Amino acid sequence: MKQYQKMVKLVAIGKMRDRFFDAKCQEFLTRLQGYGKCETVILPDSDIAGEGKAILRELDRDKGAMVIALTEEGKEFTTGEFSAFLGGIDRKIVFIIGGPFGLAPEVKQRADKLCALSRMTFTHEMARMIFLEQLYRALNLLNGGAYHH
C-alpha cells in the first residue's frame, strides 16, 4: 500500500484559551506528525480586515501550496470523502481557520477550495479541535489505518 506523507500547515487566528481544547489540539498535532510534516501558525486576534491581511501575508510564504479555507459556505465532506480528497493532493496543503468573526472575503477568494466542517456554527476553538481530529482521521484512513468505526 502506498504511504501517504503530507506537508500540512494550519494557519489559525487566536490563541486557545480553553485548556481542554488546547490539550486535544496538541494531541492531534502530535499524532499528525506520523503522516508527514505538520506546521501550525497562530496569528493574533484583530478585526476581520487585519486578520485577513495577516493570513494573506502568511500565505505568501507558501507559494504553490494548495490553500483550503474552512468556512461555513464551503463544501461538506464525509470523513471518507475528505480522506480521498486529501489523497489526490500532491503538494503542500495550507488550511486556514479564522477567528470568531470568520474569514475576510479576500482570504476566501485566495483559497483554492472552501470546506465546511458543518453548516452549524462552532466557536473557533471548537472548530480547530474538530478539524484537527478530522484531519488525523482522514490521513489515518488514507494510510490504511482503522481510525474510523
Keywords:
149 residues, five-stranded parallel beta sheet, 5 strands, globular
Report on the structure:
The chain is of the alpha/beta class. It is 40% helix and 21% strand. The protein is built from 5 helices and 5 strands. α1 packs parallel to α5 and α3 crosses α5. The protein starts with 7 loop residues before the first strand and ends in a 7-residue tail after the last helix.
- On the 0-100 scale, what is the average pLDDT? 93
Q: Main sheet, how many strands, which sense, barrel?
A: 5 strands, parallel
Any idea what the shape is? globular
Helix content class: 40-55%
**SSE class:** alpha/beta
Main sheet: strand order? 2-1-4-3-5
Low-confidence stretches: none
The whole-angstrom Rg is 14 Å
The total count of strands amounts to: 5
